Amino acid sequence: xxxxxxxxxxxxxxxxxxxxxxxxxxxxxxxxxxxxxxxxxxxxxxxxxxxxxxxxxxxxxx
Length: 62
Known about the structure:
Blueprint: H1 3-12, H2 23-33, H3 54-57
Helix pairs in contact: 1-2
């Protein structure tokens, strides 16, 4: 998912979307706001199959 798409999701959740915020920071804030663990890019063996961020999180690219 592109950074602008992540910013749009974050903005709808009233999360700070300043340009200086990284994609990783935004996603972790979204996860926290949703009541989930802010685990984006922190684990390598994710068992949560329906996570919106899973494909991007587990990809080799940073």
